Amino acid sequence: MHWDEVMSLVRKDLKLEFRQRWALNGILLYVFSTVFVTYLAFSGKMDTGPWNALFWIIMLFASVNAATKSFVQESNARQLFYYFLVSPQAVILAKIIYNLLLMLVIALLCYGVFVLFMGSWVVNHALFIAALLLGSSGFAGILTMVAAIAGRSGNNFALMAVLSFPLVLPLLLTLIKVSAASLTPAPFSDHIGNLLVLLLLNLLVVVLGWILFPYLWRD
Q: Which of 87, 114, 152, 206 is deepest in the core (most CB within 10 A)?
């Protein structure tokens, strides 16, 4: 595997995304409308607990919607073309990197809309940013692998929902715990252990994708 293969595939996905802006616009509209409905439901008054939980729940569902099309938009003919040009490791790493960029955009948008409608409860910004980065990369890795499996089925979204939830749950619970700490004046050093857990989960997902995806790719 060569990194130029990975970056070429990432650039290809970015170009496709800009040509099909309706998909990204749909995700952005979903985030905006969901946060707005939440704002109406709580009348703009929300404590730290609901604010934190709803932020990650909306982030999760937006990420699932975004990652669903990772392999669905690739036709069988195009995948066969890739099979003879690049290694399967390059394909899965490119998809993870692309989805990571997409998750970061969604995370920043979600946080921005939350701040716009319901204000910000974040006190420890460094800890919250670390949670956003590790959460986005974790969602990207897990959901990319699930999308690869679901792409082999005709019922992609249903499989994404069924397979992704038990895999994302440990990551989601740890993220909620870390980001909840960022809403208090607790020092950053007190939560390095949880951040290391998130980092290990991210590395584990990438390693599993590296090992298992070639078998799925040959199918």
A: 114
8 Å CB contact between 163 and 150? yes
Q: Give the dihedral sign, CA 14/97/81/145.
A: negative
| Of the candidates 70, 72, 77, the residue with the CA atom closest to the CA atom of residue 98 | 70
Give 106-130 pLDDT, tens digit per residue: 899 889 988 888 888 888 888 999 9
CA distances from 132 to 17, 37, 83, 195, 201 (A): 22, 23, 34, 11, 14
Predicted TM-score (pTM) of this structure: 0.87
Closest CA to 90 of 18, 6, 199: 6
Question: What is the chain written as a DSSP string?
Answer: --HHHHHHHHHHHHHHHHHTHHHHHHHHHHHHHHHHHHHHHTTT---HHHHHHHHHHHHHHHHHHHHTHHHHTS-HHHHHHHHHHS-HHHHHHHHHHHHHHHHHHHHHHHHHHHHHHH----S-HHHHHHHHHHHHHHHHHHHHHHHHHHTTSS-HHHHHHHHHHHHHHHHHHHHHHHHHHHTTT--GGGGHHHHHHHHHHHHHHHHHHHHHHHHHHH-
Angle at 127 between CA 205 and CA 200, to 5 degrees: 20
CB 198 within 8 A of CB 175: yes
How do the domains of the chain map onto residue ranges? Answer: 3-218
